[in-house]
Amino acid sequence: MSNNQPEYPIPDLAVIELVDVLRALADPIRLQILRALADGEPHPKSMTEWGFDVQKSTMSHHFKTMREAGLTETLVDGRTHAIRLRRAALDARFPGLIDSLLAA
């Protein structure tokens, strides 16, 4: 990705609420997405890359839910979209939360 600038709006760090983060991660698919994104690298948004047996619209909903909760950002480079965990921001706002969720 050459651009690596978020095109989709994400909440400011100061307004991210723990209850919204936990609500977003209450879904098993979104928790699996979190685990996949834990390496901090952008991952393709292509539905085939994720391997879930759900409709494209369902995956889009999961990605949107996570982005709106402040967990992820969507990076756009031309026609390519990728998802990245906002790990540093989340660790700053909620120290230890992501590590605890990954360990569970």
From TrEMBL:
CDD domains in the cross-refs: HTH_ARSR (cd00090)
Q: What is the lineage of its organism?
A: Bacteria, Bacillati, Actinomycetota, Actinomycetes, Micrococcales
What superkingdom does the record give?
Bacteria
Q: Which InterPro entries match?
A: ArsR-like_HTH (IPR011991), HTH_ArsR_DNA-bd_dom (IPR001845), HTH_MetalResp_TranReg (IPR051081), WH-like_DNA-bd_sf (IPR036388), WH_DNA-bd_sf (IPR036390)
Q: Which SUPFAM superfamilies match?
A: Winged helix' DNA-binding domain (SSF46785)
Q: Which PANTHER family match?
A: TRANSCRIPTIONAL REGULATOR, ARSR FAMILY (PTHR33154), TRANSCRIPTIONAL REGULATORY PROTEIN (PTHR33154:SF12)
Domain (HTH arsR-type) ranges: 10-104
Q: Which UniProt keywords apply?
A: DNA-binding, Transcription, Transcription regulation
Q: What is this protein called?
A: Helix-turn-helix domain-containing protein
One Pfam family in the UniProt entry: HTH_20
